Amino acid sequence: MEKENKYYVYEWYIKDTEEVFYVGKGSGYRIGREKRENKYFMDMKNSHDCHYRKIHENLSEEQALQIEMKTIKHYRENTNFRITNILDGGNQPPVHVGKNNHNSKKVVQYTSQGDYIKEYDCINQAIAETKITGISSCARGETTHAGGFLWAYDNNIPKIPSKMYRPNRPIVQLDIEGRYIDTFRGCMDASVKTNITHSQISDCCLGKQSSCHGYVWLFKDDYKSIVNIENFIKERFRQKNSKRIVAINKEEEVFKYESIKEASKALGVKQPSISNCLTGKNKSCKGYVFLYEYDYEKNINNIHEIVEERILGRYTRIAQLTMDGKLVAIHKNTRSAKDFDHSSISKCCRGKAKHYKKFRWQYYKDFKNQIYLN
């Protein structure tokens, strides 16, 4: 006689971060089957150090299906896990995935104002491309939005929540150390004036990311309520980006990773070597500079100088000139010019600004070239 309570519910997860990316029910050896029809599952499995575990055992098939469905629902609605299940659980596994699966529905992404953005063949394609969770719940009408966007199944009209649509909620732009830069009427106004996408600014204001493009963004009413803005920003980065690191090569290409382990695996650099770069013991390793994401955002305007010094082993000398082009001083780099802001000097050298504090600033090599040409 076949044993009734032979089923279990299991999950696949990324070892380093404990992020769950697949939930399933099975019996026997199904849990360890590594080749699946689900391409999104395979992409996650092949790009991360993963393993599986049973979370419930000795279940009837009906119990397993119900628990599977509830677990998927919980992860999609309450976490940022990139769940790769094609369906929401409670069904037999589909033979095909994506647009070839007859159970899949097309889902459409809209802005918070209800403007069309893009159509996806299925929920999982939307999750894989946008890295946003909770899309399924939003499309079913159980939640108002996901990732700052509205979602609806094909042929359905999204309902715009009145509380969510606040186009005139003022926002404040700060530098990475908390210094005030500007105030805007709303995210769209800031996007138009800074050429930074509306969604990135919005996610920063909502606390979904620490910063974007080297700036911190806050709703003005939130900004006014913060007593110590510098400590607030440091804590935000500590909580969200404590493990995230950035690798930069000599071509100044930037690669972001969730952890030292992930960077080590992707770049073939030993973890202790990366740690030594992060703590300043080594300048670079195997052609890369490694920085914590907070330090990268803080120095985003000085990447060229960092690469010059730490990878290429040379300092980028700076020429300080009067407004009519006469040489005042030569500095070893932007930071060695005392009483001047290094990022402002860098902007002048890169042609982003014409002058700073009534002086012109150039890379010394550019200054020399002008002398030879004249």
TrEMBL record:
Pfam families: I-HmuI_NUMOD-like, NUMOD1. Residues 170-204 form the Nuclease-associated modular DNA-binding domain. Transmembrane segments: none annotated. InterPro entries: I-HmuI_NUMOD-like (IPR054307), Intron_nuc_1_rpt (IPR003647), NUMOD1 (IPR010896), WH-like_DNA-bd_sf (IPR036388). Residues 247-290 form the DNA endonuclease I-HmuI-like NUMOD-like domain. It comes from the Bacteria. This is NUMOD1 domain-containing protein. It comes from Anaerovirgula multivorans.
